[in-house]
Structures are given as C-alpha cells and as structure tokens.
Amino acid sequence: MIRTLLTLAALSAPAAALAQDPVTIALDWTLNTNHVGLIAARDRGLYDDAGLEVDILPYSDTSSTALLAAGAADFAYMTSLGFMSARAGGADLVALWVTMQHETGRLVYGADNAAITRPADLSGKTYAGFGSDWEHALISTMIETDGGDPVYDTVTLGTGAYEALATGAVDFTLEVATWEGVNSELLGRDQASFAYADYGIPDQQNGYIGTRSDYLGDHADIVARFMQATQQGYEWAAAHPNDAAELMIAAGDFPNAALVEGSMQAIVEGGFLTDGDTPVGAIDPERVARMAKFLFDSGVLKGTDGQPLDWPGSVADWYDQGWMDQ
C-alpha cells in the first residue's frame, strides 16, 4: 500500500519536483547584462520546467572556452573572439546561439579632444588597450580605411583604460556601449565614439553560447531543452527590461544598480537582442563568415605554434542551430 501511494505521488508530482538533468555553463566574464537570459531562465523556473538543473559557474581565471574544451563545463558563454580563436585553433567547439545581433563595441575618445574628429586622427595618439591582437587589427583597419597611417602608441591598462581616458592620460580606447558606455554616462564623462562598422570592420554578432561536438551528439535532447529555455529567458528579458534588471541585481553583486538598469535599457533600445523578425539568438551565417574571414586575413587567429592560420574556405561547421527545430 505504501509503495502504491509513493508511486502515485511520483506520477502526480510536477516535472520540476522530479529528477532533473544536471547542466553546467561557464561564463566569459563576471555576471553582467549579457547573461540576462541565463538568469531569467534560471530564476523564473524555465530550466526547471525543461527538466534541467542548471549551474551557472562563476567566472574564473580560466577562460570559458578552455573550460568547455576540457570538459569542465557542458556549455560556455563566449565572446566572438574567444570562440573563433578556440575553434580556429583546433578546439572541437560548436556555437549554438548568439546573444547580440549587432556589434556592441565602439572606439571612444574624449569629446573635448579637438585633435580627434575622425579615425585618421588617431595616428600618433596613445591608445589604452587590453593586450590582444584583435585590438591592433581593429584599430589599424579603422585608421587605414579613413586614410590615415596606422601608427600609434599603446599602453596596456585593462579596465584601468576608462579612468585613464577620463583623466586625459590617454587619447582613446575601446568599450562596450551597453556596459562601459552606460557607466561613463552615469559618471558624467563626455565622450565621443566611432562605430567599427563605419570604418572597414564587419558588423558582427557577439556573445556565443556553445558546447562540444561530442556533447551535442550524445545529448541532443538536453541541448535542445537547455537552449530553448535559454531562448525563452532572453525573449522575456527583451520584452521586460525593467523586470530583467531587477532579476540581475538580485542575482549578482553590483555596486551600482543604476548601471544594470541603464544597461538593460541600452540593450533593448539599441535593438541588440532583437533584429526585426530574426528569432532571438539566431546566428547569421554571413556575418559569422565575414568576421571569421577578417580575423584570419588579419593574422589574429593563430595555431598552437603561434603562427597565423590560413582561411579554411568555410566556417559553416562552426555552428549548429538544429535545436531551434526540435
């Protein structure tokens, strides 16, 4: 009798109360609004409804791509450069999703700097950088496209770049408009900017979620459930930016709640999550190919020997969105 009652109770229990499939995802950086759909899917019960127990791993010194490639995580949230560098270098990773439908990065300088009115004016100026080959390829292309000589001084400062720019210690840097850009506005910093795509850089999508090819092959059902719930989380966030900001603030350790709120508004108002009728998270094959080609041609993508890699002719096997059809 007791066994029968337990069986009936189990059959009538909600899905969330039954055994969940465990899933881990590694983040590319400390928690921020790029990850809002993950938090929304977790905290609004979408992962539970999909029969998943999702552990969002905290950011660490080991990159999310490295954790994923090593099998230490089932999924990873990755920057475009991080994903493409790892994949080109031989890591068997496959992109399933992209968060931002357009480039959120931009080149910024002090609005009161009369010596800078166009990218060509950056020749001979001082750049506060972050130490990647991508930056040099990006800035050089922008200067050359505008008819200038791509010669400038670089000081590697990391996140200290923004304070250095504000104090006039450097002339320009790069920022994410939906985060550092919002923060600069909150701090009252008067800055101007150049959009990458206006000066020879392909407009790229960014914020990939991916897995390993073997995991996708062995766990196609889990991948589909995880990605569909994630998509629902980002769709909800795009439609409810204020509520999404509150969820983020409750989930993270943010010293300035206004930054999170402003960032969500910038993401939604800028049309970064949504692009017309394009489904949230949809990967555009043409834009992936254009950016990958740019990175190969610029010598940014390198092999394990440190030498630039040759363009493979196609990167169509770098992504798979079959989960959208399940």
UniProtKB/TrEMBL annotation:
Catalytic activity field: N(6)-(pyridoxal phosphate)-L-lysyl-[4-amino-5-hydroxymethyl-2-methylpyrimidine phosphate synthase] + L-histidyl-[4-amino-5-hydroxymethyl-2-methylpyrimidine phosphate synthase] + 2 Fe(3+) + 4 H2O = L-lysyl-[4-amino-5-hydroxymethyl-2-methylpyrimidine phosphate synthase] + (2S)-2-amino-5-hydroxy-4-oxopentanoyl-[4-amino-5-hydroxymethyl-2-methylpyrimidine phosphate synthase] + 4-amino-2-methyl-5-(phosphooxymethyl)pyrimidine + 3-oxopropanoate + 2 Fe(2+) + 2 H(+)
Family matches, as InterPro entries: NMT1/THI5, SsuA/THI5
Leader peptide range in chain numbering: 1-19
Residue ranges occupied by any SsuA/THI5-like domain in the UniProt entry: 32-244
Pathway per the UniProt entry: Cofactor biosynthesis; thiamine diphosphate biosynthesis
Stated role: Responsible for the formation of the pyrimidine heterocycle in the thiamine biosynthesis pathway. Catalyzes the formation of hydroxymethylpyrimidine phosphate (HMP-P) from histidine and pyridoxal phosphate (PLP). The protein uses PLP and the active site histidine to form HMP-P, generating an inactive enzyme. The enzyme can only undergo a single turnover, which suggests it is a suicide enzyme.
Complex and partners: Homodimer.
Entry similarity comment: Belongs to the NMT1/THI5 family.
Protein name: Thiamine pyrimidine synthase
Species per Swiss-Prot/TrEMBL record: Psychromarinibacter halotolerans
